[in-house]
Amino acid sequence: MRIRYFARIREQVGIAQEDVALPQNLSTIGDFVDWLEARGDNFARALADRNAVRVAVDQLHREHDEALDPKALEIALFPPMTGG
Fold this sequence. Notes:
This protein is of the alpha+beta class. The protein has one domain: Roll (Ubiquitin-like (UB roll)), CATH 3.10.20.30. The protein is about 25% helix and about 25% strand. The protein has a 5-stranded mixed sheet with strand order 2-1-5-3-4. The N and C termini lie far apart (about 35 Å). The relative contact order is 0.28. This is Molybdopterin synthase sulfur carrier subunit.
């Protein structure tokens, strides 16, 4: 699975993307974020405020309580965006 980090989350994690093998026991997006957060202090800081973490799976926005598709190719994490 390719994981991509954007904006503030990328800065705090310290990498723009990585390829990882996800544990089999992750059933929701929230489980995935929990797993990431437990990977180290930099991840814990970047993901601590769940209201400030948006997730897209294969370029489609997903909520934290939605199922994690085991066939997905990419997960992106980014802060809320504003626009004009």
